[in-house]
Amino acid sequence: MSTMVFINLPVADLARSRAFYEALGYSINELFSNDDGACVIVSDTIFVMLLTHEFFGSFIPGHAVADARSAIGAQYALSCDSRDAVDTLVDRAVEAGGSALEPRDLGFMYSRAFQDPDGHYWDPFWMEPTNAEQGPPEEYR
User: Cα-atom radius of gyration of the chain, to the nearest Å?
Assistant: First the structure.
């Protein structure tokens, strides 16, 4: 069995967040969704758990739930099949209510980050296939 990755994100408005991720083209696993959370299927091995602030906070009691709009704690990078796929995903995010940063073209890699309605940063990227096999050029090591 492959390792699965579950990214748990606190969200202020579960319905809004669910609609946002569905607008990106992802589906929801209803078996693992309820009034406290929704399971977004990104791939066969990657899932995003959208959790209400109260439910999210119950996993690690005694800690405040961070507001991703005022502090960056993580950025989630997702590989895409092409530069066009990167742009398509980010364009969908903006149309669904997110915001985008300027694209970064490093030659061997292209990325274009976006922020979801709760402030979580995603960084879809495409890497030139030869660089994915050999690593980045020397100046980026």
Answer: 16
Q: Which domain holds residue 38?
A: 1-60
- Asked if residue 78 and residue 33 are part of one domain, the reply reads no
| Choice among 72-76, 101-105, 127-131 with the minimum mean pLDDT | 127-131
Which pLDDT band, with edges at 50, 70 and 90, does 134 fall under? Answer: confident
pTM for the full predicted model: 0.90
CATH code, domain carrying 42: 3.10.180.10
Domain shared by 80 and 117, yes or no: yes
pLDDT per position as a tens digit, 35-49? 999 999 999 999 999
Whether 133 has a pLDDT exceeding 80, the answer reads: no
For the chain, how many structural domains are there in total?
A: 2
- By C-alpha distance, which of 106, 111, 104, 112 is closest to 137? 106
Q: Look at residue 65 and tell me if it is in a domain.
A: no
